[in-house]
Amino acid sequence: MVPSFKHLAWSACAFGAACAQTSTITSSSGGAADGLVGTPVSTSTQPASNAVLIDGTSTSFRVIPTLPPSIDETPPLLPNILDPEAIDAHAACPGYLASGIEKNAFGFKANLTIAGDACNAYGTDVEDLSLAVEYQSGHRLAVKISPRYLDSTNITRYQIAPGHVDQPILEANAEHTVPSIDLQFTYSNSPSFGFAVIRKSTGDILFDTRGQRLVFEDQFVSFVTEMPEAYNAYGLGEHIHALRLGNNFTATIYAADAGNPTDNNIYGTHPFCWYYLVDQQTGNLTLVNASAADPTAEHVSYSHGVYLRNSHAHEVLMSPKNITWRTLGGNVDLYFYDGPTASDVVRQYQTSAAGLPAMHQYFTLGFHQCRWGYANWSETESVVDTYRDFNIPLETIWNDIDIYNQYRDFDNDQLRFSYDQGKEFLGRLKARGQHYVPIVDSAIYIPNPLNESDAYATYTRGNDSGVFLKNPDGTQYIGSVWPGYTVFPDWRAENTSSWWTDELKRWHELVDYSGIWIDMSEVSSFCVGPSTTTSYLRTTPTPGVRNEVYPPYVINNVNGALAVHAVSPNATHADGTSEYDIHNLFGHEILNATYNALTAIIPGKRPFVVGRSTFAGSGKFAGHWGGDNKSKFWLMAASIPQALSMSIFGIPMFGPDVCGFDGQSSEELCSRWMQLGAEAYVWESVAEASRKAMHIRYSLLPYMYTLLYQAHTTGSTFLRALSWEFPNDPQLVAVDRQFLLGPSIMITPVLVPGASTVDAVFPGVSKGQIWYDWYNQTAFNATAGKNTTIAAPLGHIPVFIRGGSILPTQAPGYTTSESRKNPWALIAALDMEGSATGSIYLDDGESISPNATKSVDLTVTGNALYASSIGTYEDKVPLANVTILGVPQIPSGLTLNGETLPMSSVDYNTTSKVLRVTGLANATSDGAWANDWALAWSY
Ligand SMILES: *[C@@H]1O[C@H](CO)[C@@H](O)[C@H](O)[C@H]1NC(C)=O
Ligand SMILES: *[C@@H]1O[C@H](CO)[C@@H](O)[C@H](O)[C@H]1NC(C)=O
Ligand SMILES: *[C@@H]1O[C@H](CO)[C@@H](O)[C@H](O)[C@H]1NC(C)=O
Ligand SMILES: *[C@@H]1O[C@H](CO)[C@@H](O)[C@H](O)[C@H]1NC(C)=O
Ligand SMILES: *[C@@H]1O[C@H](CO)[C@@H](O)[C@H](O)[C@H]1NC(C)=O
Ligand SMILES: *[C@@H]1O[C@H](CO)[C@@H](O)[C@H](O)[C@H]1NC(C)=O
């Protein structure tokens, strides 16, 4: 089997492996075994004589036409944004007029009434709307526009239930009568209804739909906001795109199983963005073009966030002077966050909408190895062993769906991945402090009912409990994924979560996994082949009729029609919603269910779940990986903005497929990527680069764990763009080839082939920010506001420590649990004033509710380093040494808690200005943080 097999999906379809059409399923073995997917062996249109129980009803088994027989001729759709003849709905439609304003304690309500004849541009106009404006908290303003009457127009609209996906959107309460929020809502009725959101303190207009008609139809909602020229917008995931979205970009938001299409929609959907405006003078409504701003001048920046809480397919069209938001259904359900800094916006969004990211177990910060194509348990174990032979730390080994019997979830291939042999291997793995994370695909194989030997208990139990998605006529929806014909869990059916927990639990008894990797969760279904038709399909809306499969407005979906490479939009959920309404939520709901299942299966421990498709708030349950990328330098570069965007969305646990999933990886690429992402041992140079990168990463585990905890408790970010930490520097607005790990570590990877140097900016230098080279610990001589070329030969990744930081480290062990037993050390990098701060969070590293925790505060001020802690968590590991960077001259004496330290334990380098204090272990033998201490020096 070829390692890149997973990428044959498209070709399989192109070869004519149609979906379960009107054919009777007569064989499943033809499915996965020959490398094609779901090839029907017979194409009889007669119902099979065998009756089976489907959802408890005896049903003559015949695969229902889930996709039309002519699906391979799916008419090509011309995306609206590329269609010169497309109706401009904002010009054609009449807009609305507001009336009957009713003030209340926290805002107001009004009626919006259509201001002319319905235009029915891309659906049926909704004539009567309600507007609700609520100042909901000190930092959040909500603007909601929804149909006034749901029944009379027969318009079905889905809106995310409160608390379902995100935090409950709190109904504002009367206590918020005088909101301190720095936002003001205002509206105009001339020529038609439009609104603006203004920053009160500066007068800046942040969002302005006045002068552009609102379009509100059952299958199309659109509004336009004017923007200052050269605005800086971020977020709106998930895309492979620069961090700064730019002013000429359409963000399509529709979960898609698609490899690495630059700029197109991919796995996850995050309709949240924030804007960052830089100006030296406030109150100026035409904001300064940040990229053209004079870098030496003083600037002040303000950021604000916008979240459109809507699960439908969207498009956000960014033009130089305006942004158009369009969705294929639902309401205008907007939340504005007032910032004023980027970090504030992200925190406000996470704490009040998406939810704070999960606290992950300590081990998840270690290095994970995952590859398609391990032949059996022995080969999997030999990979683990080889890592150890090469002394490259390996924390977790993952397996792809090739462990399964014909790719059927929870059903190991007993010839290659038997439960007995697995138990032995996983026992050895666990004993060495390592972990195992296997894949679980989203679709469930549906066996051939005519062939008893094909029985598949996971399906049978699910079918008996009525947990699978249906066709509009109530029959089971059958698609096709890796195992062949498949069904799909309907997370809205009553028994689905308990069935899922039970399946994961049964399998855990056979395969002792530590976490679960969820794949294909967009949710993906194959079978729609390429088109042979040349003329484009245009759907003319019929008033009152919803066309879910070919909605009149065509989004620029990477896969074409909404049904392509996905479950059809007309599939029906148990709560009556169509897949059309909630396609974007499948990935989130399966993560939620898996998280809940793991809390039941491995009680008390933080579930480790990683998913491919995510939605706003998925970070509460899971991490994310960048999907099946290719071995290309540009994708390594793209993984940085992707990771930074995930930070914005509240998913700090993000990793790309290091070295690329598909295609031949080159030695140089792999070496560079290992350092960035840090089978590392295939080339000796890569092994060496990996060891170096891992050494840094593992040394910093306590720092990273603390960052994770801060993200989990406060909504701060794990990886950070330079501009978030240095918001007033307009030069940084688009920097996404360098990034910060937390506030204190700057990483500048080499992202192009054949390079031995890299250009870096050193932010804040003009304001006195010092940067220390990680390797020689010396202050780096950087020029303010200019790119500085730094050496970066293969095998070296430039890492700098920000002056003013104190980093907790532990000597790296082979695993994270070994590292946790190694002596502590601190690196204090002094700022211009000779000060620095830092912190450490400690707990058992795995419990959902640890019974003891400890927080350590670290401060350097006035030639002394103070450590003070609160909390009862016991860590017996002593402090070995303290390294202080940027000490101007040799100290004449040092004391620890007033006791003079022998000069033999002090080393000062007059060139590097590094002061190193060793031999502290005796004095801290109860544990580095058992007691508060002060290390002071004098000159
Ligand atoms: C559902 O959509 C599919 C195309 O994706 C179509 O073939 C089928 O006829 C539709 N079913 C109904 C009942 O409309
Ligand atoms: C909106 O209109 C309805 C009747 O059409 C009326 O009952 C209601 O009070 C109005 N609401 C507001 C806020 O004016
Ligand atoms: C709503 O649907 C029902 C049933 O299909 C139909 O009888 C009624 O006329 C529809 N009402 C409107 C306003 O379209
Ligand atoms: C905007 O993007 C499109 C598509 O990438 C490109 O063809 C066009 O030239 C761009 N326009 C500007 C003004 O950059
Ligand atoms: C606002 O900024 C623009 C561009 O920087 C400048 O031309 C204009 O004079 C400023 N207006 C005010 C009122 O400061
Ligand atoms: C937005 O601005 C672009 C030019 O930058 C213009 O072509 C487009 O018509 C504007 N959109 C709307 C809805 O006004």
Automatic annotation (TrEMBL):
Q: Share an example GO biological-process annotation for this protein.
A: carbohydrate metabolic process
Decide whether keyword Hydrolase is in the record: yes
Q: Name the Gene3D superfamilies for this protein.
A: Glycosidases, glycosyl hydrolase (family 31), Golgi alpha-mannosidase II
GO MF terms, alphabetically ordered: carbohydrate binding; hydrolase activity, hydrolyzing O-glycosyl compounds
Instruction: Report domain Glycosyl hydrolase family 31 C-terminal positions.
Output: 715-807
- Per the UniProt entry, the signal peptide is 1-20
Q: Which residues form a coiled coil?
A: none
Q: Which Pfam families match?
A: Glyco_hydro_31_2nd, Glyco_hydro_31_3rd
Transmembrane portions of the chain: none
**Name this protein carries in UniProt:** Uncharacterized protein
